[in-house]
Specification:
- 76% of the residues lie in helices and 0% in strands.
- By secondary structure, the chain is mostly helical.
- The chain is globular, with a radius of gyration of 21 Å.
Amino acid sequence: MRTTTVDLAADTRAGAAGRRTMAWTAGGLTGAAALAGGLLAPADAAQGPAQRIMYVHVPAAWVAYLAFAVVLAASVAYLVGGDLRWDRFARAGAEVGVTLTTVAIATGAYWGHLVWGTWWAWDPRLVGTVLLLLTYTGYLALRRAVAERSGARDGADRAVARPAAVVGVAGFLLVPVVHFSVVWWRSLHQQATMLAPERPPIDPRMGLALLLATAAVSVAALCVLLHRVVRLERRHATAAPEERARRTAAGIG
């Protein structure tokens, strides 16, 4: 029987077993990526050892895009079907995406310091990535603010889900702008290597290390997202009876 992502997010014994398997897989891929990036792949001829930051920076950025795509898809699914479970997927995706974007900016700043001699440059992709981080940080702040105003425990309420879903859909418009900024404007960042139309101008050993690192971050991020969804489901299950009792008491009063 085929297992879906929704099945893996279920608070069941089978779902927990699937998430444990994913965690072990992520650990194995991380070890393989560390060996490939640290020992197998050569240092860059121009940048030297500083280039190895790529094996953290690039996967973090790519998988952050995927996390924000989860926010987009889950937000659309909520707006169409009204199932609050999709809202919890959107919230978890935003949290994972914000974390990975922060990692991408931090590692990119350090990489830039080593290679460009500066921690910050008014580069289109760098500025766009910071705006992306601020957008989804604002998304999470909006959820908290609306939850506090509506009295919804842990944001488990339709009053929170609908405006958050609208922002989640609109915020994704920044993702293609950030990604294609190196093509549309003059940028310090290089253009696509792995996805270039011609033969990728990268050493195959570097390419292997980058693919392993991306796979490791992808599986780890999915594992964290699923665990977060399960925790939110548990909080919602606990909060729902209390919320109904509170509203009933308010109605009687």
